[in-house]
Design a protein that fits this description.
- The chain is an alpha+beta fold.
- It has 21 helices and nine strands.
- The strands form two sheets. A seven-stranded mixed sheet has the order 8-4-3-5-6-7-9. A two-stranded antiparallel sheet has the order 1-2.
- α9 packs across α11 and α12 packs parallel to α14.
- The longest helix has 26 residues.
Length: about 500
Amino acid sequence: MSRSTLKKSLLGWTGFPEIKTDFQPQRTRKAAAEAKKVLEGSQPRKPKSYDLVVLHRRITQVWRRDHSLAKVTHRDLRRMPWVLFYSPPTRTGEESWLGADPHVIAQYGQWLSEGRKSRSVRSLLHEFLRVYPTQLRTFQEIRQLLLRLVTQAQPPMPPSMQKWQERCCDFDLLEDNGCTVFLKNMISTNTSEIPDVHAILDRAGLSGSLARCDFLRTGILTYLPKFRMPPERNRLATVRLNWLLALLEMDGKLRFDGHSVRSKIASALLGPFVTHPAETEIRRPVERFFRLHFGDPRLPYGKSNWGGIPEEIRRVVIRWRVERVLDQFLTLIEETALDKHWRYRRAFWQAFRKQNLIDDIWVVLGRRPRNMWKKMEYMNGEIDRDGQIEEAAILEGAQNDQSVLLLRVPGVTIAEWSHNGSCRFWLDGAPGAPQLYKNSYHRNALMGGADFSQRHDGSIRGRWQDYIAKWLDRNTGIQVDRRDYFPSNLREETHPLGRYRFRDHQW
């Protein structure tokens, strides 16, 4: 290239060309973003249990000897947050904690305030949220110390410390009654969107080792008695309920367990329905929640989960199950049985349910209806594809498409057979009365020794319905109005022998 050509090119140069997006360091940018996320979201590393014992012993010995932290090594002071709320294996009780002594907190707070000790401050904040020792007399001093050290920290500061500063300001983590305020602000949302509780907890830093921290536990236990179940169908109220349910569970289990927690959960979510019915949109998620995390209060594996919970609260779940199982069984039989009169049986037993006369229910299924029952449970979201059927026993010694509905009404056990089978009744104390909750039954055990048996003859005239109603009235005092168990829409059907309709046996 000649000098003139080079000179001309340099004089006309306008700078380096813009680098296209394809040539930008995308992987480097992505790696930097991931590194920043890790640094901001990282949680302090807790020492191993053996180190905690040794650390606690060293600091305690110095404090008992000098009543001062001046001779505690700098390394031990940095790790001291891990043993402020710690009891060694040989001692128990919060009063043995180093953090229970206001002089310890005062001196340690002074040390934290001198110079940049963001790592120790983060460790103290982590342990404070994890233990959330509201019962300690030093609780407020520790909270105010952290509030000053975290929210008033000045830049420059590590990304993790800056992130915790934002979290404490945005979510009021260190405010007075912060745990309750945090829960209330989460659940009392004005959005009607489906909740993403885990995303919010992650933004607040309450994930990982803090996902089950006592900050959340205390907030939940304090908030539950104040939570008001929505009295009627309401999109916003239903969303708030779903927020609470999502907060109460984690990884398919209760976030916090124990009899005290279960008792408060049951009282808050079921108490309003002891005397009032629940809307379907409200009842469905609540019933599913208790079925998954509490189990059936009637069965051995579920009884321990319901221990200490009042009977009236447990009866709400049982009543819901009676309604659901009865309706599901009648729907199933209409699909599998040949009896064209099952609509009359549906009306009859639904009349008893509406008056809360059915105390308990259990279904016994043949092979074919059992498979269909499991599919119905799966479609309704009650069990997973490989789940076990809870409230359905196996029927042995009968046709594979037969089924039996076992009912408990005051003073009587009833076996209602599918197809054209008779309905059988055993009074309380009868030696042959079938027991509920068994895994399997032989047909003979559900047929012999009954105190009363009634074939389903004369459905369209209400004949068998009247016989059963009169027997129950005479032997137990149970009374159900004929207009309820034999409603007008069934009495007004056209008789196959004529074009006239009948009312109450009249042509």
